[in-house]
């Protein structure tokens, strides 16, 4: 399989990533090294694979394990689509606002250096909106918040995206609808909260270093930090897709990389100052440095749920609203529980072709076993029959590059010739077609 352009930039024969690690050894976060290593080995059969066999023509198919990492451009794409699809059916079918809260440009490096503040950064953004509904309208809204750390040029620009129900649930389960967001009040509150958050969580030495930035951020933003929440017609699917596209994926899409010549990378970006599409050309080392700073810390949740969408109270809130709407005959919640789709289901929906169908004969591939990496060696985890085990053993040798003895190879060739002579026979009304 041809590696995508991001893999070539990092891991081609020039060894840019290895050189970057050697040059900046000790300065790179442990989780960054872990995620990039997972991305490097994603799809490599040396880390394990599954064996599929066509029931018609006996074509063998090796399916390598994927890394499912946060930095992987392949794995995160499917995960984003599945997340938005499942969540679309679980949220209340009411109007939502997409609220974005940003900070002053001079404070971005403060959060880059003190990443421990990002969790409270998200919580405080949500608290402001949640308290407005609770104090003003006596209802609890539903909020899905996501931390977004990168700008269009891969610069570090932490801000919070929130999907907020326009209304909320009262204590008796009644749902009340409101469609007003007090921008001026929220902007000033958000500015105060961010500045206080930094001052309260830094030690005296660090506060002295950022004091000038804090003062400048306050004086240059007389109306408060920017808060954006345009009115929308309740297209929850599009809003969730937008949030997932920018929050659950790596900092740059492969399609945005225009050119790579071995030393420099050119990529497209949208300049929001003039609304134009532009390109930027930078050295590979600078490109890598911009890219890896957006990998979150291990176990850090970039998407969180609050209010009636909180994981602890979601089921109870749904039940209370359901009882109320039965009585009031106002149908707010029509959510249905969906199961996660399998890989072949997602591929069939995207391409129109079932990847489990053989292109040679049109028959279906059957799962026959798999191999896992244990203590640095590939070992058979599942083998559904003796033939499958023999094929898996041969595949392990091929993948590992081990030459088998001549006698063993001759015996296996004899066994394969004998297996091919076995006629197709009917067992219990079904055709037995597997004879390798």
Briefly say what this structure is.
This is Transposase. A five-stranded antiparallel β-sheet has the order 8-3-5-4-12, sandwiched between helices.
The level of helicity is 40-55%
Shape: globular
Could you list the spans in which at least 5 consecutive residues all have pLDDT below 50? 418-436
For the residues shown, what is the average pLDDT?
84
| Helix/strand order | HHHEEHEHHEEEEHHEHEEEHEHHEEHHEE
Number of strands: 16
Helix-strand category: alpha+beta
Number of helices: 14
Pfam families: Y2_Tnp, Zn_Tnp_IS91
Protein name: Transposase
Domain Transposase zinc-binding: 15-103
Organism: Cohnella cellulosilytica
Helix and strand topology:
Blueprint: H1 5-11, H2 16-23, H3 30-40, E1 48-54, E2 60-64, H4 73-90, E3 96-101, H5 108-113, H6 118-137, E4 142-150, E5 156-165, E6 167-169, E7 175-177, H7 183-201, H8 204-219, E8 227-228, H9 236-247, E9 257-260, E10 264-271, E11 276-283, H10 284-292, E12 303-307, H11 314-328, H12 343-351, E13 365-374, E14 377-383, H13 386-400, H14 406-420, E15 425-427, E16 430-432
Antiparallel strand pairs: 1-2, 1-13, 3-5, 3-8, 4-5, 4-12, 6-7, 9-10, 10-11, 13-14, 15-16
Helix pairs in contact: 4-9, 6-7, 7-8
Give a written overview of the molecule.
This is Transposase. Residues 142-312 form the Transposase IS801/IS1294 domain. InterPro entries: Transposase_32, Zn_Tnp. Residues 15-103 form the Transposase zinc-binding domain. With 436 residues, the protein is of the alpha+beta class. The chain has 14 helices and 16 strands. The chain has helices spanning 5-11, 16-23, 30-40, 73-90, 108-113, 118-137, 183-201, 204-219, 236-247, 284-292, 314-328, 343-351, 386-400, 406-420; strands spanning 48-54, 60-64, 96-101, 142-150, 156-165, 167-169, 175-177, 227-228, 257-260, 264-271, 276-283, 303-307, 365-374, 377-383, 425-427, 430-432. The strands form five sheets. It has a five-stranded antiparallel sheet, with helices on both faces. The protein has a four-stranded antiparallel sheet with strand order 2-1-13-14, covered by helices on one side. The longest helix has 20 residues, at 118-137. The model is unreliable at 418-436 (pLDDT under 50).
């Amino acid at each position: 399989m041809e590696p995508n352009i991001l893999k070539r930039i990092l891991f081609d024969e020039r060894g840019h990533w290895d050189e970057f690690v050697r040059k900046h050894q000790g300065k790179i976060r442990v989780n960054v090294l872990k995620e990039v290593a997972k991305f490097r080995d994603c799809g490599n059969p040396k880390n394990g694979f599954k064996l599929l066999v066509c029931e018609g023509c006996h074509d063998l198919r090796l399916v390598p394990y994927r890394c499912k990492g946060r930095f992987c451009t392949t794995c995160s794409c499917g995960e984003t689509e599945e997340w938005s699809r499942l969540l679309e059916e679980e949220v209340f079918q009411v109007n939502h606002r997409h609220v974005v809260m940003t900070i002053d440009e001079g404070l971005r490096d403060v959060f880059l250096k003190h990443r421990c503040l990002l969790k409270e950064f998200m919580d405080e953004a949500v608290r402001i909106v949640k308290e407005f509904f609770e104090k003003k309208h006596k209802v609890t809204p539903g909020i899905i918040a996501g931390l977004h750390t990168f700008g269009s040029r891969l610069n570090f620009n932490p801000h919070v995206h929130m999907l907020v129900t326009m209304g909320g649930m009262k204590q008796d389960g009644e749902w009340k609808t409101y469609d007003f967001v007090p921008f001026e009040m929220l902007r000033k509150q958000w500015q105060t909260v961010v500045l206080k958050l930094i001052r309260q969580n830094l030690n005296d030495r660090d506060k002295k270093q950022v004091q000038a930035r804090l003062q400048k951020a306050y004086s240059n933003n007389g109306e408060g930090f920017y808060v954006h929440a345009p009115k929308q017609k309740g297209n929850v699917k599009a809003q969730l897709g937008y949030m997932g596209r920018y929050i659950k994926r790596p900092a740059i899409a492969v399609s945005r990389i225009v050119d790579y010549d071995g030393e420099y990378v050119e990529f497209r970006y949208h300049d929001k100052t003039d609304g134009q599409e532009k390109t930027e050309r930078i050295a590979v080392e600078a490109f890598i440095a911009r890219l890896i700073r957006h990998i979150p810390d291990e176990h850090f949740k970039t998407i969180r749920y609050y209010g009636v969408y909180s994981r602890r109270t979601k089921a109870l809130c749904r039940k209370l609203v359901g009882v109320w709407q039965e009585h009031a005959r106002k149908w707010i919640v029509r959510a249905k529980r969906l199961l996660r789709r399998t890989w072949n289901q997602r591929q069939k929906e995207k391409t129109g072709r079932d990847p489990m169908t053989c292109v040679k004969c049109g028959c279906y591939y059957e799962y026959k076993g798999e191999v896992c990496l244990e203590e640095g060696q590939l070992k058979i985890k599942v083998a559904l029959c003796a033939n499958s085990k023999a094929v898996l053993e041969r595949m392990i040798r091929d993948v590992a590059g081990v030459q088998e003895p001549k006698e063993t190879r001759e015996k296996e060739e004899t066994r394969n010739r004998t297996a091919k002579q076995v006629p197709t026979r009917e067992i219990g009304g079904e055709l037995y077609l597997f004879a390798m």
